[in-house]
Design brief:
This protein is of the alpha/beta class and about 425 residues long. It contains 17 helices and 14 strands. Bound molecules: uridine-5'-diphosphate-glucuronic acid.
C-alpha cells in the first residue's frame, strides 16, 4: 500500500519505519526543519533500533520524506495522522495540529485519500467530527480510529508484537484496508465502532495509571506497617484476573501520555456531567509521590537550604531521553523552592536539555560530596554500580532508592557503612 503519515514524532516515525518494514511505501510528512534533520539522520528521539531501521528503509526506497501534506497525499491509499494532541486550555485536548492537517486536505481537494487513519489519541467523538468536516468540502474519505499502544523504549518491538490491534471504522472497505496495512503482524484484531475505539485508548491508559497509583497507595501502607510492597504485589498480581504488570511501586508515573490522557478523559466526563472519581484519585496519588519523598528527605536533613542532592536518571523511564512530564521536573521545581542544589547523571539525556542543573558524566561524580542521592529511573546499570564506593564518596550517606533497584545483597553491604540511611519505596 501507499501510506502517507503526517507527523514524525514518536508515534509517526515508529509507525513509518515499521509499516515500511512490512513492505508498504511510506511517505512521512513534517515541518521543514524536522524533515531536514531526518534526512541528515538526526533523530530527536532515542529509541532502541529506530535509527538502524530508518537507515535501512531509506536505503531500500520504502520510506521517503515530504513537507507538504497535499503533495504527499496524491495517490496514497491511506493517510495516517500522528500529530501531537497535547492538553490545551481548561484541560481540553488541543486538536489544533489535527485540524491543521484536515484544513490542508480540504484545501488540496481531490488528493484526499479514501481513508484517513487517526493514530493520534483524540477525545471520543473526534473522528465523527473530522469526517463531517471533510464532507463540508465534498471529501468523502472515511476517518478510521486506530489507537497506538506503544511504550517508549520498546516501541518497535511493541509495534511488531502488539497484544491487540484495534480498528474503529464504519465500512467493510476501511476494515479491509486496515487488514492489508497490518498484514504480517500476528496479533488479535478487534474491529469496533469509532467512538468505542477512541475510548479504548483512554480507558487503557487510565487503567494502567490506576494500577500504578494503586501499587503506590498500598506501598505507603506497607511502609506504615513494615510490610514489603514487592511481596504484596507479587501475591496480588499472581491472580490472573489482576495480572502482574504495572504494579511496580516508585516515584510515580511520568511521560507524555498517562497524565495527559487522564486529564482528557476527566474533561470528557465533565462534559457529560460525570466526575470519574477513580481517575481523580489516580492523578492525586501520583502528584503526591515527589512531595512525599522530599518531605522524608527534609525530615532527615533538618534545614534543606544549601544541601546538595544527586539524582541518577532524569527521564520518565529507562531507554528514553524523553523528559515530558518526568517526575524529576517536579522534584527540580521543589528543590529550587527549598534552595537545594541538584546534580544529575543520566545515560542518554543531553546536558543542554535541562536548565539550572549541574550535569555530570558519571554516577560517581554525582555521588561525590552529595548530601543525599536519589535513583529516579531504573536503568539496569544503576544496580551494577559500586554502591559501597558511591556512598563513601558522599558527604552524607542518604540513599533514596526511588525504584527499588538495589539488590538485597548490596543493601546488606551498605548497611555496614557508618551512618548509612537507605530508603526504598514501600518496604
Ligand atoms: C504508555 C502506555 O504503556 C502505552 O501502552 C501507550 O501507548 C503510551 O503510554 C501512549 O499512550 O502513547 P509510556 O508512556 O511509553 O507508555 O510508558 P510506560 O511504560 O507505560 O510507563 C509510564 C510511566 O509509568 C513511567 O514513568 C514508568 O516508570 C511508570 N511505571 C510503569 C511505574 O511507575 N510502575 C509500573 O509498574 C509501570
Amino acid at each position: 500500500m501507499r501510506l502517507t503519515i503526517i507527523g514524525t514524532g514518536y508515534v509517526g516515525l515508529v509507525a513509518a519505519v515499521c509499516f515500511a518494514k512490512l513492505g508498504h511505501f511510506v511517505t512521512a510528512v513534517d515541518r521543514i526543519h524536522v524533515i531536514q534533520d531526518l534526512r541528515e539522520n538526526k533523530l530527536a528521539i532515542w529509541e532502541p533500533d529506530l535509527q538502524e531501521m530508518l537507515e535501512t528503509c531509506l536505503s531500500e526506497g520504502r520510506l521517503s520524506f515530504d513537507t507538504n501534506v497535499a503533495n504527499a497525499s496524491r495517490g496514497a491509499d491511506a493517510l495516517m495522522i500522528a500529530v501531537g494532541t497535547p492538553t490545551g486550555v481548561n484541560g481540553q485536548t488541543d486538536l489544533s495540529q489535527v485540524d491543521d492537517v484536515i484544513a490542508q486536505l480540504k484545501q488540496a481537494g481531490g488528493v484526499c485519500p479514501p481513508f484517513i487513519i487517526m493514530k493520534s489519541t483524540v477525545p471520543v467523538g473526534t473522528c465523527d467530527e473530522l469526517e463531517a468536516n471533510l464532507l463540508t468540502a465534498g471529501l468523502h474519505s472515511e476517518v478510521v480510529f486506530n489507537p497506538e499502544f506503544l511504550r517508549q523504549g520498546s516501541a518497535i518491538n511493541d509495534f511488531m508484537n502488539p497484544d491487540r490491534i484495534v480498528f474503529g471504522c464504519r465500512s467493510h472497505l476501511a476494515k479491509a484496508a486496515l487488514h492489508q496495512l497490518y498484514k504480517g503482524i500476528n496479533a488479535p484484531i478487534q474491529v469496533c465502532d469509532r467512538r468505542s475505539a477512541e475510548l479504548i485508548k483512554y480507558a487503557s491508559n487510565a487503567f494502567l495509571a490506576m494500577k500504578i497509583s494503586f501499587a503506590n497507595m498500598i506501598a505507603d501502607v506497607c511502609e506504615g506497617y513494615g510490610a514489603d510492597n514487592r511481596q504484596v504485589m507479587q501475591g496480588v498480581g499472581a491472580d490472573r484476573r489482576i495480572g502482574p504488570h504495572f504494579l511496580r511501586e516508585g516515584i510515580g508515573y511520568g511521560g507524555s501520555c498517562f497524565s495527559k490522557d487522564l486529564q482528557s478523559l476527566l474533561t470528557s466526563g465533565k462534559a457529560i456531567g460525570r466526575s470519574l472519581p477513580l481517575l481523580e484519585a489516580t492523578a492525586q496519588i501520583n502528584e503526591e509521590r515527589i512531595p512525599q519523598l522530599l518531605e522524608k528527605l527534609i525530615s532527615l536533613w533538618g534545614n534543606p537550604r544549601g544541601k546538595r542532592l544527586g539524582v541518577l536518571g532524569i527521564s520518565f523511564k529507562p531507554n528514553t531521553n524523553d523528559m515530558r512530564d518526568a517526575p524529576f521536573l517536579t522534584l527540580l521545581r521543589l528543590c529550587y523552592l527549598y534552595g537545594i542544589e541538584v546534580q544529575i547523571y543520566d545515560p542518554v539525556v543531553l546536558p543542554t536539555s535541562i536548565e539550572g542543573v549541574i550535569q555530570k558524566d558519571t554516577a560517581y561524580e554525582v555521588a561525590a560530596a552529595a548530601d543525599a542521592l536519589i535513583i529516579m529511573t531504573e536503568w539496569p546499570q544503576f544496580a551494577e554500580l559500586d554502591w559501597v564506593l558511591m556512598v563513601q564518596l558522599m558527604h552524607q550517606p542518604i540513599l533514596f532508592d526511588g525504584r527499588n533497584v538495589i539488590s538485597d545483597e548490596t543493601i546488606s553491604q551498605l548497611m555496614m557503612v557508618k551512618n548509612m540511611v537507605y530508603i526504598p519505596v514501600g518496604r
